[in-house]
Write a sequence for this structure.
C-alpha cells in the first residue's frame, strides 16, 4: 500500500495501577525517518518505546508495523531491536561474540555470522576490535558495539533509549554525528529517546514533544523550534519568552495585542478582539533600542548584560515587572544597565501558543 506508515501507534493508552502514563497517543513513522521522542523525565517516552518493542503491553490501542498489528507479538517476533543507555553488553564475551550472539542463538551459519559481524563492525568503525572485551573499551566504543549488536539482525526499526546519556559532553556530540550518519547510510528507521533538546534538534527528521503522557507537538526540528503550538513546546526547547495579552484589533491578517505587562505588540494572525493569547518569542529574536520597530510600544529597562560561553545575555525588565531574556551579539548592547529602551521583534518570528 503506497505511503503506508512503517510504524503506526494507534491511540495507545497505558496505565500502571491507577496511574495513566500514556493518554491515547498516536503517531505515524515512515520508513527511513529519524524520529525523536523528546520530553522531561516521567513524560512517557520509555514506556512508549517499550510498548513498540513488546517489552510492555498497552492497556488499549495498537502497534502496527507495515500495516500488521503486532500488539500481541513477543519482542523476538517483532522486526525491531533496542539499544539501551547502559549498553547491556555481556561482560564475559568479546566484541565479536557480543555482536554475534543473536545470530548464534538463531543458528545462522558460521560463515554468514562472520560476514555479518565484520560488516557491522566496519559500519560502526570498530574493525580490528573483535577480540577486545567490553572492559577494554571506552564508553563510546561500548556504545558502538551495542549498536552493531542491535543492527546485525537487520531490524526494520531501531529503538534507542537515551543511548548517549552516559557519555561526557564532547563524546556525546561526536556520537550524535556518527549515529546520524550511520542512520542515513543504512536507511533504517530510528526511534530515539532523549530529554536533551540539542540532541533532538541536531539529529531528527521529526520530533515528538511529550508531556504527561501525550504529544504536545509533532513536527520537524524547524517547526518545533520556530513554530511551537503550545506553551510547553515553546518553553521546553530553547530560550523562549512568553508574554500574555488581549487582542485589541485585527486588520489585514494581523492583530494588535495589549500586553498584560504593559505595551503593545503585533502578531501575524487575525484574531478576534477580546481573545486572550500567549505569545512565544525566542531570546535571540528580540531586539531593543531607544525607538521601537514594527509598530511595537513595549517599554523596558536594561537590568544587566552578561557574557557566558561566547553568548551575550541581556535581561530587560518590562514596565509591568516581567523580565525578558535576550541572547546573541546584539548591536544595541552598548546601552548601559538602567537605560530605558523599547523592545521589539519581527512578528514573523513569534508564535501564538495559547488562545482563549
Amino acid at each position: 500500500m503506497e505511503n503506508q506508515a512503517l510504524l503506526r501507534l494507534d491511540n495507545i493508552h497505558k496505565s500502571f495501577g491507577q496511574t495513566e502514563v500514556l493518554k491515547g497517543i498516536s503517531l505515524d513513522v515512515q520508513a527511513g525517518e529519524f524520529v525523536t521522542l523528546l520530553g522531561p523525565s516521567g513524560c512517557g517516552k520509555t514506556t512508549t518505546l517499550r510498548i513498540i518493542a513488546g517489552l510492555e503491553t498497552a492497556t488499549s490501542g495498537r502497534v502496527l508495523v507495515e500495516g500488521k498489528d503486532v500488539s500481541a507479538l513477543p519482542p523476538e517476533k517483532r522486526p525491531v531491536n533496542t539499544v539501551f543507555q547502559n549498553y547491556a553488553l555481556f561482560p564475559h564475551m568479546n566484541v565479536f561474540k557480543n555482536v554475534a550472539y543473536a545470530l548464534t542463538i538463531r543458528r545462522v551459519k558460521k560463515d554468514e555470522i562472520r560476514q555479518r559481524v565484520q560488516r557491522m563492525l566496519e559500519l560502526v568503525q570498530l574493525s580490528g576490535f573483535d577480540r577486545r572485551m567490553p572492559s577494554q573499551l571506552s564508553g563510546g566504543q561500548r556504545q558502538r558495539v551495542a549498536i552493531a549488536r542491535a543492527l546485525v539482525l537487520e531490524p526494520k526499526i531501531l529503538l534507542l533509549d537515551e543511548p548517549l546519556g552516559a557519555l561526557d559532553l564532547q563524546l556525546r556530540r561526536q556520537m550524535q554525528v556518527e549515529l546520524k550518519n550511520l542512520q542515513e547510510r543504512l536507511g533504517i528507521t530510528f526511534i530515539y529517546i532523549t530529554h536533551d533538546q540539542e540532541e533532538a534538534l541536531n539529529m531528527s527528521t521529526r520530533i515528538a514533544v511529550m508531556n504527561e503522557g501525550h504529544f504536545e507537538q509533532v513536527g520537524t526540528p524547524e517547526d518545533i523550534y520556530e513554530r511551537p503550538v503550545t506553551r510547553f513546546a515553546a518553553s521546553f526547547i530553547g530560550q523562549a519568552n512568553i508574554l500574555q495579552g488581549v487582542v485589541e484589533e485585527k486588520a489585514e491578517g494581523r492583530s494588535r495585542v495589549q500586553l498584560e505587562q504593559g505595551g503593545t505588540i503585533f502578531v501575524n494572525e487575525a484574531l478576534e478582539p477580546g481573545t486572550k493569547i500567549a505569545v512565544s518569542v525566542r531570546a535571540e529574536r528580540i531586539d531593543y533600542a531607544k525607538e521601537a520597530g514594527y509598530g511595537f510600544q513595549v517599554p523596558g529597562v536594561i537590568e544587566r548584560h552578561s557574557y557566558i560561553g561566547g553568548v551575550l545575555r541581556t535581561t530587560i525588565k518590562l514596565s509591568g515587572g516581567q523580565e525578558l531574556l535576550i541572547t546573541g551579539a546584539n548591536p544595541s548592547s552598548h546601552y548601559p544597565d538602567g537605560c530605558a529602551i523599547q523592545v521589539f521583534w519581527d512578528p514573523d518570528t513569534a508564535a501564538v501558543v495559547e488562545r482563549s
The chain has eight helices and 20 strands.
